[in-house]
Amino acid sequence: MSVNVGVWIASLLTLAIYSFLYKDNPFYKIAENIFVGVSAGYWAVILWFDFTWPNLFEPLIRQGNFIYLIPIIVGLMMFAPLIHKISWLIRIPLTFTMGVAMSLVILQRIQGEIFPQLQATFLPLSGVSPAQLISNLLIIVGVITTLIYFYFSKAHKGILGVGAKLGIWFMMIAFGASFGYTVMARISLLIGRVYFLLHNWLGLI
Amino acid sequence: MNILDRLVKFDRRILFVFVALAVIIPLLIPIGLPVDITRPVKHVYDRVESLPEGSIVVVSVDYDPGSEAELYPATEAFLEHCFRKNLRVYMMGLWPAGPKLGNMALEQIAPKYNKEYGVDYINIGYRPGGPVMLVSLGRNVADLVRTDYAGTPIDSLPLGRAVKSARDMDLVMTLSAGDPGVLHWIIYFSARYGTPIATATTAIMAPQQYPYLSSRQLIGLLGGLKGAAEYETLVERKARAVAGMDSQSIVHLLLVAFIILGNMVLLYQRRKK
Q1: How many domains does chain A have?
Q2: For A59-113, what is each residue's pLDDT tens digit?
């Protein structure tokens, strides 16, 4: 059994959280509130020491790089709505952020996501093995029928209706796969905690 | 009252007990169920194997303690493989807590292979800025990185001096639990600079990565704890992930059984009405 105080605290808090599975109780509430408080404090420290200080105040104060005054001033403008007379100043940082984000995101999303993903659906239907042919057909039919389902300018009747129904089937299979993976993820987290209790705390494995 | 009538009033806490037992017992008494290797995991392994000694691998630890159970085993297994192959590891993180978790793994694995900090591996810490940062990092590392995670000037470390831009990075491995993460690396880094990207993601994120595997924007994928277990098997380092696979398989069987049972009860109730 562990002699580490930290491991004991973590283990008892884990058990307190899991006690909720039986029913709501004071131990669960205590653990929940500790988690909220510690998280807030932890992130405040991380954001200051790993983010704000080394990227903004350290170059400004320690290295005397006064260009960093500009982001400080622009950042402070985000608080302008708190003072009614100068509330319009918030438009400056917002426009700057939107401008940078839009130019970068639009360009890179087209280059890095839309084009390569489109290209990945241009698949050969001849000169490939039967297994590859089935795989390619599934991708092509899946993409087209799912897109048909999201085409709303015409009633889903006739051939369009068949396509849309097929699209729903493809989406259902995708949702099923996602749900399966979600279950796996949750169980993995439980295994991680139980492993911690049995290995780090109790030393049974 | 038959058994199906009784199951209608089934206390779900009984299911929790079954799940707990299905997790605890295989951990205490391992069965040793086989771990099959899937192609996306093998591709990551093969790519690392194909890199010549001294190649630089960026390991981006893009998760926090909430996903530690799924991604930390993958972090250790991947680092083990890199160090065994004498590759140099350039660690960083898009999540604030990531590089600290990565450092724990480095401290576990690097001494086993007598690797020296600054020469064989480095940790430049948390890098904020998402897309803008990744674009700048690929163009000129010196614009962004002046010190490592502990505040040591990057120019004083040989590996720090060796990485000037994306051209010096032979592979990026992102251990990703969300946003920013693998999608940012694909869109804002790989698409721009052509650096190959491999990823280990939480199981929830894994299905979303298959289109990128299909388009070859990702060279491989370690999906959740199962992916980590496969990688541990490949690098012959059976540790936490492999230990958890027996429990994972048994709980899945149990849940399948309960889903079937639940549906049977539902159908029975409908018929009764």
Answers
A1: 2
A2: 899 889 999 999 999 999 999 999 999 999 999 999 999 998 888 889 899 999 9
Q: Which domain holds residue B210?
A: 39-238
* Residue in chain A lying closest to B143 (CA): A55
> Is residue A197 included in any domain, yes or no?
yes
Residues B224 and B127 in one domain: yes
Residue B157's region, left for phi above 0, alpha for psi from -120 to 50, else beta, is beta
Q: Are A191 and B25 in contact (CB under 8 A)?
A: no
- Answer yes or no: do B14 and B91 share one domain: no
- A102 in reach of chain B (CB within 8 A): no
Establish if B243 belongs to a structural domain.
no
Contact call for B69 and A191, based on CB within 8 A: yes
- Angle value at C-alpha B128, between B123 and B129, nearest 5 degrees: 135
Q: What is the rounded CA–CA span in Å between residue A161 and residue B180? A: 38
Dmax (CA) for chain B in angstroms is 78
Residue B215, chain A, CB below 8 Å: the answer is yes
Strands (E), chain B: 56-62, 88-93, 121-126, 171-176, 197-201, 220-223
Residues 227-266 of B with CB under 8 A from A: 240, 243-244, 247-248, 251-252, 255
Is the CB of A204 inside 8 Å of chain B's CB atoms? yes
Range of the domain at A12: 1-64
Q: Is B52 left (phi over 0), alpha (psi -120 to 50) or beta?
A: beta
One domain, residues B189 and B140: yes
Strand partners of residue B93: B126
In angstroms, the CA A141 to CA A183 distance is 28
pLDDT tens for the 273 residues of chain B, in order = 678 888 888 888 999 999 999 999 999 999 999 999 999 999 999 999 999 999 999 999 999 999 999 999 999 999 999 999 999 999 999 998 999 999 999 999 999 999 999 999 999 999 988 899 999 999 999 989 989 999 899 999 999 999 999 999 999 999 999 999 999 999 999 999 999 999 999 999 999 999 999 999 999 999 999 999 999 999 999 999 999 999 999 999 999 999 999 999 999 989 888
In a domain, B71, yes or no: yes
CA distance B24 to A75: 51
- Say whether both B9 and B131 belong to one domain: no
Domain count, chain B: 2
In a domain, A190, yes or no: yes
